[in-house]
Amino acid sequence: MHKQNRSRFFITMSALIGAILFAIYIHITNGTFDMSVKDIFTTLLRMNPTNDFDLVIFEFRLPRIVIAALVGLGLGIAGTVVQGITRNGLADPGILGINAGAGASIVIFMFFFQMELAVSGSSNWLSIIIMPIFGFLGGLIAAILIYIFSWTNGKLDTQRLILSGIAISTGFGALSLYISLKMRESDFEMATVWMSGSIYNANWIFILAMIPWLLILVPIIYRKAYLLDYFQLEESSIKSLGIQVEKEKAILLLSSIGVISACVSVSGSIGFIGLIAPHIAKQLVGIHHRYVLPASAAIGMFLVIFSDYLAKTIFAPAEIPVGIIVAILGVPYFLYLLMKTKA
Amino acid sequence: MVTTVIRAERLTTKYEKFTVFSELSTSIKKGQITTIIGPNGCGKSTLLKTISRILKQQSGEVFLQEQDMKGISTKAIAKQLALLSQNPEAPLQLKVEELISYGRFPHRKNVGTLSSKDMEVIEWAMDITKTTAFRNREIAQLSGGQRQKVWLAMALAQETSILLLDEPTTYLDLAHQLEVLQIVERLNKEHHCTIVMVLHDINHAARFSDELIAMKNGEIITAGPPEKIIAKNVLKEVFNIDARIMVDPENGSPVCFGYDALPERE
């Protein structure tokens, strides 16, 4: 029984890794400056490097792909956790208001500090490192508000969790918009593009800012993933088994908020990945979260890299925020899921 | 000698602002089957949930083997006490055997694999509940009666000496009701499990219990052996019915064979 699940998991994962490599391949070779695979390998392996290739690969395309991959991974994981905790297949970090909270907080940060920091030049990278922390605070505030509104009788009411999440998400969205309207025109444009989810201004410092969050939080989540299986039972049964439900939920939720904030702070709000990836993962590898989690992470990676490829090529040389591409792909799937749950 | 395994002292439990019961005290004797009866909304399920730490009491203490439950870790409690809740739910694609294996949670050290001891207990639980035949099926493919037995098996896999059952026979047909209760009886007789359950059928309660607790409006009206509780005056007070009672010639337990509603009293 377990063997069967495991082989299904390994086959799926190999296929997903293949898909990711394919997405990276088309992303790195295509663009305003087409390159062959041979060019890329010679550049990566430092065999007679040229400045042009170096610039395109190391400064433009590679950071972008790495960020797309990390954001996809983070959102896929966070989405799995949020859906697992709420026992609601339509829950998603975006719906819960965590994205919006992190986003609003980063817009505030941009408004008050970044310009000053950017002016002083050399400390620019510092502001990028600080951004995820701000994002985390915003995400945390959103999460605390959601907790307060959905806490009844000493436990988390998951139905209320989603309703208050929608309200808080709208509230923070309005706040972000209000603040961004107060910005100078150039900042406003930057903020709007960032809010709709884009990664084309990616650079290595963003990646550096993001990696510690993922390195610490993803293993914590993976270690606790098996609990998500138990969380699919109803509350009394879980408690009766001796699981500290509220504590474990808080650890998982906080870790996910951290992951989401790190993602939001570099890419803005990319919706739907956290919703779609876990669903596809469950279709592929079954209901065990030890399998769903990595599969969902891989699917998230693939989706964001591929969507970003579309974002940069469809209307080239103009760029579309990747969040919009993801939404265009995601909305029909979301509606399909809604129809299916009704039936 | 009969000893007490669970003792509730001056328990008060609330839902939001509604007090279900206050200052309620009772005790459960070791190795016996105790059944809580009473009309809907009298607080019997809430009492069961409070003594199993599913609900937190507002005040008062619950003692498990003379130890205050607040001082015992929830995992340690789960090794002594299992609860089959009223409306258990599980993902429909989950396999029967896996669901039952969840019951091993409090005993497991390694999350990845089941030990041979775990496997042994799971086999035993499936054997007693007669669920071995559909161990590889998914929950979606089971009937209501089969599901209830699977849930019971999961509680048994916890390997506890105390088993709490919240309306284990509700929604089951007559044959399955009896089957579930006979499993419970066997656990009590052969494995010396202490059983506390909530039942609606007073004849089942009378037939399978050593001890009955009759509740109404958040208070324990009376407690004692079935012969004492299944009586005209008690049933009148608790359920507001005029019951006709006789003794089952087969097994000697009191049976209510007919009843009429009494006019509402204020």
TrEMBL record, chain A:
Main location group: membrane
Residue ranges crossing the lipid bilayer per the database entry: 9-28, 62-82, 94-113, 125-149, 161-181, 201-222, 250-276, 291-311, 318-339
GO terms under cellular component: plasma membrane
Keyword rRNA-binding: no
Keyword annotations: Cell membrane, Membrane, Transmembrane, Transmembrane helix, Transport
InterPro entries according to UniProt: ABC_BtuC-like (IPR037294), ABC_transptr_permease_BtuC (IPR000522)
Compartments it resides in: Cell membrane
Superkingdom of the organism of origin: Bacteria
Listed GO MF terms: transmembrane transporter activity
GO BP term, pick one: siderophore-iron import into cell
Pfam families named among the record's database cross-references: FecCD (PF01032)
Membrane topology designation: Multi-pass membrane protein
Protein family: Belongs to the binding-protein-dependent transport system permease family. FecCD subfamily.
This protein's name: Iron ABC transporter permease
Organism encoding this protein: Cytobacillus solani
Automatic annotation (TrEMBL), chain B:
UniProt-annotated location(s): Cell membrane
Keyword Transferase appears in the UniProt entry: no
Source superkingdom: Bacteria
Single GO MF descriptor: ATP binding
Alphabetical UniProt keywords: ATP-binding, Cell membrane, Ion transport, Iron, Iron transport, Membrane, Nucleotide-binding, Transport
Pfam families: ABC_tran
Transmembrane parts of this sequence: none
An annotated GO cellular component: plasma membrane
Keyword DNA-binding applies: no
Domain ABC transporter: 6-242
One biological process term in Gene Ontology: iron ion transport
Membrane topology: Peripheral membrane protein
Designated name of the protein: ABC transporter ATP-binding protein
Organism encoding this protein: Cytobacillus solani
